[in-house]
Design brief:
The structure is a homodimer. Chain A is built from 20 helices and 3 strands. Chain A is mainly α and about 500 residues long. Chain A folds into 2 domains: about 90 residues; about 350 residues, Neurolysin, domain 3. In chain A, helix 12 packs parallel to helix 17. Chain A starts with a helix and ends in an 11-residue tail after the last helix. Chains A and B meet through helix 1 and helix 2 of A and helix 1 and helix 2 of B. Chains A, B: One of its GO terms (molecular function) is zinc ion binding.
Chain lengths: ~500, ~500
Amino acid sequence: MSSAYTRLTERFQRLSRFSHLSAIAGWDMMTMMSPAGSRARGEALAELGVLQHQILTSRETGEDLARAKQASLSSDELANLAEMERAWQQAVVLPSELVEAKSVAGSRCEHAWRSQRPANDWQGFAENLKEVVSLSRQEAEIRAQNSGVSRYDALLDMYTCNQLDSIFADIKAWLPDLLQRVIARQDQQPIQRPQGPFATESQRQLGLSAMAMLGFDFNAGRLDVSAHPFCGGVPQDVRITTRYDGQNFLSALMGVIHETGHARYEQNLPSQWLGQPIAHARSTAIHESQSLFFEMQLGRSPAFLARILPEVINHFGGQDALNQQNFIRLAQRVQPGLIRVDADEVSYPAHIILRYEIERALIEAEIEVEDIPALWQEKMQQLLGIDTTGNYRNGCMQDIHWTDGAFGYFPTYTLGAMYAAQLFQALSRALPDVQQRIASGDLQPVFSWLQQNIWQHGSRFSTRELITRATGEDLNPRWFRQHLESRYLTDEFTTGRTTV
Amino acid sequence: MSSAYTRLTERFQRLSRFSHLSAIAGWDMMTMMSPAGSRARGEALAELGVLQHQILTSRETGEDLARAKQASLSSDELANLAEMERAWQQAVVLPSELVEAKSVAGSRCEHAWRSQRPANDWQGFAENLKEVVSLSRQEAEIRAQNSGVSRYDALLDMYTCNQLDSIFADIKAWLPDLLQRVIARQDQQPIQRPQGPFATESQRQLGLSAMAMLGFDFNAGRLDVSAHPFCGGVPQDVRITTRYDGQNFLSALMGVIHETGHARYEQNLPSQWLGQPIAHARSTAIHESQSLFFEMQLGRSPAFLARILPEVINHFGGQDALNQQNFIRLAQRVQPGLIRVDADEVSYPAHIILRYEIERALIEAEIEVEDIPALWQEKMQQLLGIDTTGNYRNGCMQDIHWTDGAFGYFPTYTLGAMYAAQLFQALSRALPDVQQRIASGDLQPVFSWLQQNIWQHGSRFSTRELITRATGEDLNPRWFRQHLESRYLTDEFTTGRTTV
């Protein structure tokens, strides 16, 4: 007779194998699938999802969790058990009818959105979104009752609204002014756009070179193309994607560097635990901290840009705009715009705060779906000085998150950016010559530090404990602000911060 | 309370969704997967396989099958029910320990074979193969007891050994002589090899052109690369593969045409039944008849070759060897060789008969694994006049089938070739100007005939009933012989059989 804990590890191992198949089929759907395969694929993935939900929420799982808590377990086993219980708890509190209804409404809303967005059809979209919001409120209500917090809090991963409010209030206090100063400063710096077209295959080869410089394990992953870039697959075979703009190679290059950050985290999760919940990446915020560490802290640093410039010239040939100073200016250009995913790192938090404030009020039922466009317009004006009147397509209809009912997700992007800055600051203390290392292409100490402090831990510690162990303190927005001020308001290029 | 039959359709629908995921993950394994993902993928697919086996062989399935037989069902439903029962019967007779043991032994044997084959290590390979043969004999024994036929018969899909003996005896009676006459004849015909290299991308574009000419639905499928060409995926999204030889573009071109035959069958299975067993392709022999119809009856016909030659020149540029007569000779060259998968259609049956005779004796325990090399040597000498002494690598170790314990599969290749010839003969009666149609690129009547007679029926009829309905008679090897004699011993190019 095996112990309750052993049975649980077997059950979660089995769930992990099913997740492997759904991750690969999901990646295929975004990269390879023929249009006619769409419906059958959706049904197949849903069937597997139902099965996984049944296994996870089965009576046996609940009983074994209760029994295993009585057993004598190692600290790793206890951490694994805690993650099992968290997954079970998340799944078991919701009635399956609600899960089903939310999934159906989300699919319907997302499917219609694909044509409503280009048609700027807010009225049509709003009808479906109301259903998604209504079901998401029900979900939040149930989770809130279960955990004794507010409804929106119940959808958040680790921080409460109050904490986020205070973090975002801090950012709101200095961001608009910082943004104005950066723009004024960059207006004085002439910039030259490189002349395209840049062949897709050359861009792909440049992306592969960047991945190699950043330690991507090509024995355990690959690079492909999809409409919306993502990092998918499984830790043993990580699939990252990008898309190529023939006139702007920096877009794909920086996208690939971003996804490589996600990928290296996945590729370096604790191999001895793979298949168990403790081996999972800690949280979406930590995942985003790794991609932004790679893109913002490394990829857009003058040291890295100077290092990769010869590769760029190697792939596209030389031209005036590809001198070092201009190349760095291109990669660090700040320009507030309508679209979140295209935003630079200075204006990005504004996009997040706007969405956070709206979705929070929506879930707390302080506003209704009809109120979104006016609020969007008001906050875009306030935070970025941009008018979005009547432009639903590139306004409140631009993201996929709400169509699926993924409320509570947006804040993790900015938390990730702040963690990334804080981690880089801690790394710089441990490795004072980090900029020289980057400039000379000696990135191994950087990766070792991340491996040591983040990757190898999987889900052993909570997000906040992980960050505290790595940096000596809980989340401190100060480092993010310092990073932005140093990069965008001082001449990082020629200051002592780098030797380039 | 739903009826037993309805419950069965739901259960098989569910199984079909799981098969969808394993088909896509299986395709991915052969085309996209990173090496490090191999073990996790194998485990994930095995886990799903175990689940499917459990669902199929569950007590409920057995009970519902018994109940549904009492119900009043339409003829299509009865055919569907019969296919359900066949699948259940196939699965339920074997003890799960045997299924498991065979799967493990097969994986071990195949895995080792991948390095033993290049090393020509027969001794090492034989050790693993013995285990596979022993378990396959056990399987055959159980199936034989269940169905009251001989052990090897029990592994065959539709024909008995006696029937195959008589069919193959017929072929053996005329094939060696035919082969000698064809070779003597072709020795008199000068042939010129086209000068490579032929760029992979150009070869791929040519393959896509051929697929388009042959009606492949690109909205429901794609072409990729793998070490061993195959047709996989699902009917809504068929995945065919090829491999490119820089010096010989005909190899990939004919391979693509072959797989397109498989693909069109899959793409045109009865859509109203997809997800149910009745919608499956009828059998491996019928599947192979479609690929060989496309490759041998259409693809290597002078009419089609003349039609596609301008495309070839369009992709590679012109050269002396790419004149019409020489191009046809290249595509119809007969040259006995060591390797089955590279064989021309005249020597191919010899490779099959040899394997049939050996595997039959092996399963019937008339010979042992140690006897294989000597028999191989003897039969290759007899049938093709080729000496294989000591060349295990390109002799009895060349195929993957036996490593997995897939005994009883080889005969379907030659049955497929004979069906293809017989179907083409019937088509020619219905469409007397078929060669003119092919020559002018008007292939729609050909596809309509196949759709009408084969594709749309899925598994509604047995293989033999399907063939009899389509051609007016049961398998008749005469048409295959007539096809070979007409193509290889008369001047098909200038006779009345084609207008080219």
